[in-house]
Structures are given as C-alpha cells and as structure tokens.
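Aim 2 progress. For Cytochrome c domain-containing protein, the working sequence is reproduced below.
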Amino acid sequence: MQQYPQHKQRVIIYTAKSMVLLSLLFVCVGLIYISTHFMSRPLTHKGFSPPISTLPNSNSSAGFAALPEKTAAWTAPQESSIPPGALGDSIRYGRELIANTAKYFGPQGKIARISNGMNCQNCHLNAGTKPFANNYAIFFANYPKKGARSGKTDQVTDRISDCFQRSLNGKMPDKTGKEVRSMVAYFKWVGQRVQKGEKVGGTATAKLAHLDRPADPAKGLLVYKEHCQSCHGADGAGQKAKDQLTYLYPPLWGTNSYNDGAGMYRLSNFAGFVKNNMPYGIDHNNPVLEDEEAWDVAAYVNSRPRPHRAQEKDYPDLAKKPIDAPYGPYPDHFSELQHKYGPFKPIVEFGKSTTASMGITRGRQGDHRGQTGG
Ligand code: HEC
Ligand code: HEC
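Predicted structure tokens for this construct:
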C-alpha cells in the first residue's frame, strides 16, 4: 500500500477540513436565507397564491406543502373528513344552515321566521371557507373571549347571535336547539386544525390602506353602476332566487339588508370584503377594484337607507371602539361623519398620541377586528 509523504498527508487533511467547514458555512447561509425569506414573511394577501376552490369540500392543502405552516393560507378540512354517524350529520346540517339560512329562518322559514332573508354564506363565502371572505378558520378556537363590543366574555353562541341580530337583522334561534348545536358542530369541524391564538393566513377580510380623503359616496355610485348594479340592482334590493326563499343576489341596502349595527356597516370591513370578493367570482389573486374604488363604493352603499339598531351600549370601553364605528360617543373629538367615512389617518394618529401620552403601549389601533363584526 502506498504511503503518502507526511507533508502531502497534512495537505489532504487540511483540504478535507476546509471542505467540511465550507459546506457547513453553505448550510448556515442557506438556513438563514430560508428563515428570513419564508418564515417571517408578512401575512399580506399578496404574500401567497393559494389555489382557490369554489366549493368548501374541494379544498386541498397539498398546494402549501412547501410553505411553513404558519404563513400558509388556511384551507378548510376535506369534506371526506367529516366523521360518520350522528356527529357527521350534525356538521352537515350546520353547514346547510349557514349556506341556506333563509330557508329555515327567513321570512318564509320552515323552522322560524326570525331574519331578513339573507344567508350567513352571503358574507361568509363558501360556507365560511374562502380566504379573505370572513371565513370561520379561527373562530371556534378563540372562543369564549372578551368582546370589545359587548364588554363581557362572549360564548360561541353569543357571537352567532350577534350576526343573527345585526347582519340578519333578526333574532337568535334557541341557543340549545338542534340548529344552533349543529352550527356550532360545523364551526368546530371547520376550525379543527387551528389553535387558540394562532395566526392564520387569509382570515377575516383584508384591511385596505386608508385614503388621504374621506370615502366618497358620489364617486361610489359610479363604481356601483359599473360593477355592482347588474346583480344587486339599482335599488340595492338584490334579486330573489327562483324558489323565492333565498336570494340569488343578496340585498345591499333597504328593509331586507343588514342593519347599521352590523360588521358590514363599518367601511373598512365592507371595502376589504368587496376588494377581494366582488364582483362575484373573483378572489384575492385577481381583484377588479382599486382600493380607492372599494372605499368609495363602501361609502355609497353604507350611505343608503337600512334598518337601524340601537347601539348606545356597544363598546362600553370607548378605547376599544374601532375608529370606523359609525356612531358615537368616541374617545376623541372627531365627528361621527369622519368616523364613518374618514379620513381615518388623523384619527389613527390621534389615538396613537393619546395612548402614548397616557403611557399605554397597547391601546387603540387603526382597526380592531374579530370582536366587532356580525
Ligand atoms: C355577478 C353578480 C354580482 C356582482 C356584479 C356583484 N355581486 Fe356582490 N354578491 C353577489 C352574490 C351572488 C353574493 C352572495 C354570495 C353567496 O351567497 O355566496 C354577493 C354578496 C355581496 C355582499 C355581501 C352580502 C350582502 O348582500 O351584504 C356584498 C357586500 C356585495 N356582494 C357587494 C358587492 C359590490 C359592492 C359589488 C360591486 C363592486 C358587487 N357586490 C358586485 C353577486 C354579485
Ligand atoms: C351582511 C354580512 C354578514 C352576514 C349575512 C353574516 N355575517 Fe357573520 N360576520 C360578518 C362580518 C363582517 C364579520 C366580522 C369579521 C371579522 O371582523 O372577523 C362576521 C363575523 C362572524 C363570526 C365571528 C368570526 C370570528 O372569526 O370571530 C361568526 C361566528 C359569524 N359571523 C357567524 C355568522 C352566522 C352564523 C351568520 C348567519 C346567521 C352570519 N354570520 C351572517 C358579516 C356577516
């Protein structure tokens, strides 16, 4: 066997050592690159492009395998994962109630006539499974929780009741009845993979950047005529489906629409929803409206007449009131009109300066969400 001279051996050992070190270096640099570029990527709606399914049961999480779990857009569980037996039946019935609420609880509802004819799904698209369409991803995991609007600890059923009373301008069905229990079973099933407090992509609606001016109903009317009227109607009353029980195109204002205590009556919620979901058929990957148009059409629709709800008791802690809550009192000097239409930046700035001068670090923010819709 051939023996290397001593100095040659040293050279070989040295080269081997450097190669090991060098490859370690590469691995480190690679890891740092991956962590800065993918792990901490902000959860903006431009940050990812999930495949959007049109049906809740055709969702698949396969497309996100390469993305770190926390930043991937949430997808609903597969329908095939609904368990067999009584629980499965309950989950399916719950989903049916969300998709076709009016058949059961609308003006001609077969269980009770306690709401305006809208379906939960009209705003919680695809039975609450679509990204940036008020989906139910994080709902179940985070309740019970302290509600800013109620000022108390809200149970899951309190939150459901909010949407019945405000968005459906009606009454809550029996909280202990089969229907509500089935809706809760559905919410639990839909949100089963989400942990309390977990950040998930694509929940609620997107928050659009604030304009420097007030949102303008007159400009919004032009947007409405061009992009919305064909379905929702010149009078905003929508159009009933053939069965006359639910809406083909739901109303945007008037007697059968959400009342002025609803989440959609806040401009930020409306604009964010519409930007990523309307005209019907689009999603956050291919919006049609500019942000400005979304704000203006929100101003137009929410300046039209609709049912009123007394809401003096909402937000007992004024510091927790969202800046675009349309009714006073407020913890600042800005008018009701400015709180409804903007400009919002001065209100945000004022909120920051007062909380800072009071030594509060976590105070009023630009937009609260979560506890406020319905
Ligand atoms: C092609 C028809 C169509 C067009 C155009 C359209 N929508 Fe809709 N919109 C719908 C349908 C259908 C729903 C209900 C979706 C569901 O139930 O799955 C809906 C739901 C809504 C909702 C939530 C439910 C409600 O009635 O409050 C809002 C708000 C809304 N649309 C606003 C708009 C705005 C603003 C525009 C114009 C930028 C617009 N839509 C354009 C069909 C349309
Ligand atoms: C007119 C539109 C609209 C309709 C119709 C509607 N909702 Fe909502 N809902 C909202 C908005 C807006 C929010 C607030 C979303 C947010 O800020 O997270 C919300 C929030 C919720 C939440 C809390 C979600 C969370 O993650 O905290 C639940 C639960 C809910 N709605 C259930 C229902 C049910 C059940 C119905 C039917 C009985 C219904 N909604 C009908 C607009 C609507």
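Residues 131 and 176 are 30 Å apart (CA to CA). This observation will guide construct design in the next reporting period.
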